[in-house]
């Protein structure tokens, strides 16, 4: 059965809470590269050169250029039916999107509750005070942008080796989920990948990912791209949980 045992006893409630954990794969069909697929970003760039605090300390220009290029791509991209289906789901029940993505495609699609685990590529922040944040929008990050301490602003993203401040909130959301949907993540990066372990026993977990190698113990895997798999999941949810 699609929903497992819960389906037989539960009727649709407005309090039904779906938590959706998304990764780069949900934005792939919007034209944004994933990280670990063939030809992905980490084949083209060395993590040590562009995505660590040490890289920033060594070569700020190189790090800025990496994020400026990616920001321009994000600005040109548009949400796809995967993002849009999650907005449609919000009309039916409570939906919390927990994303590892630094793009804003969930927000532009219209999702109302989006928690960014790894920050936002559209923002820059002070290296000294993480709460000092500016919205870059269409502007490139240049050395001219400085914080109130006089240091150059850095991209407001979480780099390898840095803490993930939103983890506690994300874990609480997952622990309160009635359904967990994982879309387009290799679940290869911690601590984000550990979030699935916070789901309560018996909570149905579905993974949407076209890669044959993608497995998650206890989860059903829909081997489809997000633009097909997410709308399919949402229409089955709507058909199952009718008022
Ligand atoms: N629809 C759904 N999933 C897809 C699609 C698609 N059209 N195309 C690819 N995928 C899947 C891949 O099969 C893979 O499992 O998306 C996943 C992408 O995995 P990663 O590239 O590892 O991306 P992600 O899991 O988001 O990476 C996590 O790593 O480098 C960091 O900070 C970066 O947030 C990122 C984190």
Descriptive overview:
With 243 residues, the protein is of the alpha/beta class. It has 2 domains: 1-30 and 79-118 and 164-243, Rossmann fold; 33-76 and 121-157, SIR2/SIRT2 'Small Domain' (2-Layer Sandwich). The chain is 32% helix and 17% strand. It is built from 10 helices and 9 strands. A 6-stranded parallel beta sheet has the order 3-2-1-7-8-9, sandwiched between helices. It has a 3-stranded antiparallel beta sheet with strand order 5-4-6. Helix 8 (105-109) links the parallel strand 2 and strand 3 (114-116). The chain is globular. The model is unreliable at 1-13 (pLDDT under 50). It binds adenosine-5-diphosphoribose. Adenosine-5-diphosphoribose is lined by residues 23-25, 28-29, 34-37, 40, 100, 118, 184-186, 188-189, 208-211, 214, 225-226.
Summarize the structure.
The chain has helices spanning 6-9, 25-28, 41-44, 47-50, 53-58, 60-76, 81-90, 105-109, 167-175, 226-240; strands at residues 17-22, 94-99, 114-116, 119-125, 133-135, 154-157, 179-183, 205-208, 220-222. By secondary structure, it is α/β, with parallel strands linked by helices. β2 (94-99), α8 and β3 (114-116) form a beta-alpha-beta unit.
How would the blueprint of this fold be written?
Blueprint: H1 6-9, E1 17-22, H2 25-28, H3 41-44, H4 47-50, H5 53-58, H6 60-76, H7 81-90, E2 94-99, H8 105-109, E3 114-116, E4 119-125, E5 133-135, E6 154-157, H9 167-175, E7 179-183, E8 205-208, E9 220-222, H10 226-240
Parallel strand pairs: 1-2, 1-7, 2-3, 7-8, 8-9
Antiparallel strand pairs: 4-5, 4-6
Helix pairs in contact: 7-10
Bound molecules: adenosine-5-diphosphoribose (APR).
